[in-house]
Amino acid sequence: METTIIGIDCATVTARVGLARGLFSGQGLFLQDAGVASNTEAMLERLHDWMGDQPRVLIALDAPLGWPEPLGRLLARHRAGEPLEESPNRLFRRETDRFVRERLGKLPLDVGADRIARTAYAALSLLASLREKSGESIPLVWHAAYRERVGAIEVYPAGTLSAVGVRSSGYKEPAKVEERQAIITWLSTEMAGAAEYHPLAENADVLDAAICLVAGRDFLKGQVLTPPSLSLAKKEGWIWVREKR
């Protein structure tokens, strides 16, 4: 079945939220549109239009969508001045963060201790707004054969790049056009239309959103690392990324 994939490079400021739409079918993955929105309402309208009446939609978000289970459990009973009876890495990093570091050598930011928590909050708020606007439940999905019309997953562009041996740092600054072009060269082998789409070279947020499309395609093809504990993943969230080459 054809699937519309929507990649979202999440951020706390709407002008820095990268958006990309692709179509995945038996012919492969094709980039259809990409860019940023001027304001939150315009962003929601664009995403809603992209979802439209498509038979199947997968939203791939670059942001943590949950917090470490030990952190929530311990904070619920913690009192000021008392020690926390757990190691910092267990408190502030999720199982998926440790797993990605072990398998890919790339450590995601600690959602329990870093400013990325605000991005996670923004991503969850965006999902809630999309649910309200569309009337769709948009659950997190855990396998490629999900039944809902619209599902969502967590992805990690830097992890996807690391898995294929492409440099995953040093391309964010506006002047780093050559570094972004190197990523686009790889991206064009994974997705038709990427090489000709100039906004990818001009804006790293848009480029990351396009990489989210590839991660979403990997999920749909079942070419991703799966959680050792599905119950824990459903509590903390899980980064869907391919195995390292």
Layout of secondary structure:
Layout: E1 3-9, E2 18-25, E3 28-36, H1 40-51, E4 57-62, H2 69-75, H3 88-92, H4 95-104, H5 116-134, E5 150-154, H6 157-163, H7 177-190, H8 199-202, H9 204-220, H10 230-236
Quick overview:
The protein is an alpha/beta fold. The protein is 42% helix and 14% strand.
Task: Please tell me about this protein's structure.
The protein has 245 residues and is an alpha/beta fold. The chain is 42% helix and 14% strand. The protein has helices at 40-51, 69-75, 88-92, 95-104, 116-134, 157-163, 177-190, 199-202, 204-220, 230-236, and strands at 3-9, 18-25, 28-36, 57-62, 150-154. It has a five-stranded mixed β-sheet. Helix 6 packs across helix 9 and helix 7 runs parallel beside helix 9 (204-220). The chain is globular, with a radius of gyration of 18 Å.
Mean pLDDT: 95
> How would you write the strand order of the largest sheet?
3-2-1-4-5
How much of the residues is beta strand, in percent?
A: 5-15%
Largest sheet: 5 strands, mixed
Q: What is the straight-line distance between the termini?
A: 28 Å
Number of helices: 10
One letter per element, helices H and strands E, the order comes to EEEHEHHHHEHHHHH
**Shape estimate:** globular
- Count of DSSP strands: 5
